[in-house]
Specification:
Strand content: under 5%
Pfam families: TFIIB, Zn_Ribbon_TF
Order of helices and strands: HEEEHHHHHHHHHHHH
Function: Stabilizes TBP binding to an archaeal box-A promoter. Also responsible for recruiting RNA polymerase II to the pre-initiation complex (DNA-TBP-TFIIB).
Number of helices: 13
Strand order of the largest sheet: 1-2-3
Number of strands: 3
CATH class of one domain: Mainly Alpha
GO biological process, one term: transcription preinitiation complex assembly
Organism: Candidatus Halobonum tyrrellensis G22
Helix content: 55-70%
CATH architecture of one domain: Orthogonal Bundle
Mean pLDDT: 82
Keywords: Metal-binding, Repeat, Transcription, Transcription regulation, Zinc, Zinc-finger
């Protein structure tokens, strides 16, 4: 018994000696090697310097903190990035749990029949909890419709986000009773595209929507009026890059089309005219002026507008150009 106690005492003594030596090394690391002064961290410059003599002991240190600054608790919570980013393009803003459809475990092995049944029940209940009321089901269907139409029209993510916010506002202010989900979602996307400066014509929007043109136009006017959306009239020049790209025209032709539209604005002939028709006519006229032969039928297919409209606007643009030169 006495020998066990002696061994235990020796072991404790060795541990205490080791702890003392480690503590001495830590103290030595925290003191200046030149003057023995206290070392401090300069987070702005990423350096460890001596408080007394100013010796730089370490430099180019890694900053493990965030790159943003917060001045109160609420701002800190807003800027903190933990987990996936939230998005308005999902009805729950991407905060809920999603169970994958693959019936495999973490190692890639197939699940047994009993486990597959269990996972299917979990998916069913998870879907029920994600859309617990009619409002969430409505929002889920509408946002899926907006994403489908935006993909078909080639609209960027910022337009989809704006359309989602517009639809959420319409839902919160009870603008949907008496109107279809597809109609309000189409009107929201049409308004968002015009706000972002990447407009699509009403015919293009109707082509990918599940409602007719009259309902889209009527719902659009209602949503804009009730939500007080500030939407400027569509600028014909905003359609020119897309039409020129689809027709594979040169930069010179695109620049010439812009000049024709600027002249038309100065002469005031654009008032009351369809911006899509003016843009299509300007692209057609510019292709002829730059010797890049494009038919009216090709421009009509790209702009989704009749050849008669292109011919009428085409003559008006050239007449305005001649008057300016005269």
């Amino acid at each position: 018994m006495s020998e066990n106690v002696r061994n235990y005492t020796d072991e404790r003594a060795r541990q205490s000696d080791t702890e003392e030596s480690e503590g001495e090394r830590e103290e030595a690391d925290l003191s200046c090697p030149e003057c023995g002064g206290q070392l401090v961290n300069d987070s702005e410059r990423g350096e460890t310097v001596c408080r007394d003599c100013g010796l730089v002991v370490e430099e180019d240190e890694i900053d493990h903190g965030p790159e943003w600054r917060a001045f109160d608790a609420s701002e800190k919570d807003e800027k903190s990035r933990v987990g996936a980013p939230t998005t308005n393009m999902m009805h729950d803003k991407g905060l809920s749990t999603n169970i994958g459809w693959q019936n495999k475990d973490a190692y890639g092995n197939s699940l047994s029949s009993r486990q597959r049944e269990k996972m299917q029940r979990l998916r069913t209940w998870n879907e029920r909890f994600r859309t617990r009321d009619s409002k969430e089901r409505n929002l889920k269907q509408a946002l899926g419709e907006i994403d489908r139409m935006a993909s078909a029209l080639g609209l960027p993510d910022n337009v989809r986000e704006t359309a989602s916010v517009i639809y959420r506002r319409a839902l919160d202010e009870d603008l949907l009773p008496g109107r279809s989900i597809e109609g309000v979602s189409t009107a929201s996307l049409y308004a968002a595209a015009r706000q972002a400066g990447t407009p699509r014509s009403l015919d293009e929007i109707t082509g990918v929507s599940r409602v007719d043109k009259d309902e889209v136009a009527r719902t659009y006017r209602y949503v804009v009026r009730e939500l007080n959306l500030e939407i400027q009239p569509a600028d014909p020049e905003s359609y020119v890059p897309r039409f020129a790209s689809d027709l594979e025209l040169s930069d010179e032709a695109e620049r010439r089309a812009r000049q024709l539209l600027e002249t038309a604005k100065e002469e005031g002939i654009h008032s009351g005219k369809s911006p899509v028709g003016l843009a299509a006519a300007a692209v057609y006229a510019a292709s002829l002026l730059t010797n890049e032969k494009v038919t009216q039928g090709e421009v009509s297919d790209v702009a989704n507008i009749s050849e008669v409209t292109i011919r009428n606007r085409y003559h008006e643009l050239l007449e305005a150009e001649e008057q300016v030169h005269l």
